[in-house]
Every structure is written in C-alpha cells, then in structure tokens.
C-alpha cells in the first residue's frame, strides 16, 4: 500500500465557520520528509486516525468516520477537529485518487512537545487487493485482550474506545494469529466476551438476527458495521447490539469481520473448528459496501 498523496492541514478551531478551508491545506510530496523528529505521534503514538475506504474517488461514510474522529479526539483530550475542514481535506484527497479502491487516512497528532498546535495531515494510498479474503474468508483465532468488559468505565485513561495511533498491540495480535496458522484474530475480554478484531468489527448471524458486541465494551464503533446493519435492516433482517459470550462464536450460523477497506470477510474457522460461510449474503453485502455510501 504505497502512499501516493499527502496534504498537511493547519488545524483550526472546531467553531471556525468559514466556508472554504483550501488555504489551510497544503499538498506535500508523499515520499519526502514532512514531520519534525519531535513529533509525539511518532515518539509515543500520541494521536488519532481514521482509515476511510475510497471507491472510484468516492470516500465512503465520511460523516460516520468524522463523528468517530471527533469522539476519539474528545477521549484523548486533543483539540476537537473542525469537521468541515476535515471534510474538505478528505474531498481534496479523494479528488487525487484514481479509479478503483483507495484508502484515505486522516491523522491528528498531539504535535511537537511544547509546540503551538497539533499536527494534522491526510494521506491517500492505493488499497491492497482484498478480493480473496472477501470471497474465500479468513480463519481466526481468539486472543485474550487482557481486560474485562467493565474496564473501559473503570479506567478511561486506557483510551479503549478511541482510534489512537498506538496500533502496536493490534499488529502484535495479528502476528500471533499468523504464528498460530490463522489469518486474523478475534479479541475476547478476560471475562469471556467477544470484543473485536485487531482492525475490524465482528458481526454474527443467528437465523435472521445479526448481532455485534456493544461498542461500550472498550471497542471501536465500526463505521462498516453501522452501514452493514442499516443495509441488513433494509433487507428485512433484525439487528442487535449486545454482549456476546465467546461460546456463541461457534454457535453462529455465519460470522464476518467487517472494516472500511477490506470490507466483509467471512470467518471460515474459529480456533480449531470450521465455521459455516454464507457466500450469497457475503457477496451481496460486499456489493453494497462497494457502492457509493455517504
Ligand atoms: N475495530 C478496530 C480495532 C479497527 O481498527 C477497525 C478499523 O480499522 C474497526 C474496528 C472497524 O472500523 P471501520 O469499520 O470503521 O473501519
């Protein structure tokens, strides 16, 4: 996934009501150095981000991503992003994307230590080819996330509901999954509930009811899961947010990992046990997820 374009943003106050933010966006050479060595995003992973899927230059679900971006900033005590400014930055980056699938990242860092402002930028890269996991699915292992469902409420400083730049744990979990011969992981809480995957939300099907874990349990509220639930409801299915016990994973009629760029990947195996795959629904869901969505 090569980054092709980058725009540095001069972040402005969230209540700045100007209509045109073009003068605050500067395109820079994506292959040249652009950040100070004192950046807290690189030194401590202290910042937040969003990864937005782009299909044929249309950025998907921008509003939902920006809502989560604002929520992440609030959780991390970062200056609240000006939503209109970021919307225009995303539109400017999307205009640079060619046909096919791309990924735009919005990044807000705490900036340089004792510096005057946070650092902000947007990148656009071509997306990896995810045709195979979408069609053939992913084998997952369950991995202990090391906290219980009530931890986020007891310890908000863990920033569990924020999409922070600190993804070292998420990447380590993927490496552990690969070592165990799987493609991906499903995190479970220490008290035995399903959470999320390192880079995706989990959706389970029980008959005509689709279930996802409550996003209060220290997981991100996935924009793809939200969009998938809206589509499933339009198709006449019921959807439910609730606590999901780990043993329910194996009892589901089908299950998926869903995320903005890979979209819906059906789960084919959970630990040592094969899982049933609903190919027809997966294809229909991915066709919907690839259509322009706002
Ligand atoms: N959970 C985690 C930890 C993620 O990193 C992601 C996406 O990157 C998701 C869930 C799914 O979120 P979305 O559907 O908005 O991509």
How are the SSEs placed, and which strands pair?
Layout (H helix, E strand, L loop, with lengths): L2 E7 L15 E4 L11 H5 L2 E9 L2 E2 L2 H14 L7 H14 L4 E9 L9 E8 L4 H6 L1 E7 L6 H4 L13 H12 L4 E5 L12 E6 L2 E4 L10 H12 L3 E4 L4 H4 L4 E6 L3 E8 L2 E2 L4 H12 L4
Parallel strand pairs: 7-8, 7-13, 10-11
Antiparallel strand pairs: 1-2, 1-6, 3-4, 3-5, 5-6, 9-10, 9-12, 12-13, 13-14
Helix pairs in contact: 2-3
Bound molecules: pyridoxal-5'-phosphate (PLP).
Pyridoxal-5'-phosphate binds next to helix 7 and strand 12.
Structural description of this entry:
The chain has 9 helices and 14 strands. It is of the alpha+beta class. It has 2 domains: 124 residues, 2-Layer Sandwich (D-amino Acid Aminotransferase, Chain A, domain 1), CATH 3.30.470.10; 159 residues, D-amino Acid Aminotransferase, subunit A, domain 2 (D-amino Acid Aminotransferase, Chain A, domain 2, Alpha-Beta Barrel), CATH 3.20.10. Strands 7, 8, 9, 10, 11, 12, 13 and 14 form an 8-stranded mixed sheet that branches. A hairpin with a 2-residue loop joins strand 3 and strand 4. The radius of gyration is 19 Å and the shape is globular. The model has no long low-confidence stretch (mean pLDDT 97). Bound molecules: pyridoxal-5'-phosphate.
């Amino acid at each position: 996934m090569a980054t092709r374009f980058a725009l540095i943003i001069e972040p402005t106050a969230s209540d700045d009501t100007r209509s045109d933010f073009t003068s605050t966006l500067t395109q820079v050479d994506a292959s040249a150095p652009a950040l100070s060595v004192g950046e807290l995003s690189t030194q401590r992973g202290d910042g937040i981000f969003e990864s937005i899927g782009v299909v044929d230059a249309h950025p998907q679900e921008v509003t939902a991503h920006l809502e989560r971006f604002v929520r992440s900033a609030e959780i991390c005590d970062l200056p609240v992003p000006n939503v209109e400014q970021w919307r225009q930055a995303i539109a400017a980056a999307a205009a640079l994307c060619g046909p096919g699938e791309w990924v735009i990242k919005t990044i807000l860092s705490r900036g340089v230590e004792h510096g005057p402002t946070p650092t902000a930028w947007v990148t656009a890269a071509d997306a990896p080819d995810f045709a195979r996991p979408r069609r053939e699915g992913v084998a997952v292992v369950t991995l202990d996330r090391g906290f219980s469902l009530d931890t986020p409420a007891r310890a908000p400083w863990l920033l569990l509901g924020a999409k922070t730049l600190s993804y070292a744990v998420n990447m380590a979990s993927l490496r552990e999954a690969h070592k165990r011969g799987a493609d991906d992981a499903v995190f479970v809480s220490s008290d035995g509930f399903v959470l999320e995957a390192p880079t995706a939300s989990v959706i389970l099907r029980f008959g005509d009811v689709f279930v996802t874990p409550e996003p209060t349990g220290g997981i991100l509220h996935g924009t793809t899961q939200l969009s998938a639930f809206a589509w499933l409801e339009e198709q006449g299915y019921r959807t439910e947010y609730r606590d999901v016990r780990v043993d329910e994973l194996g009892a589901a009629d089908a299950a998926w990992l869903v995320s903005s760029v890979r979209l819906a990947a059906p789960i084919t195996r959970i630990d040592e046990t094969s899982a049933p795959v609903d190919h027809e629904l997966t294809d229909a869901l991915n066709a919907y997820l690839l259509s322009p969505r706002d």
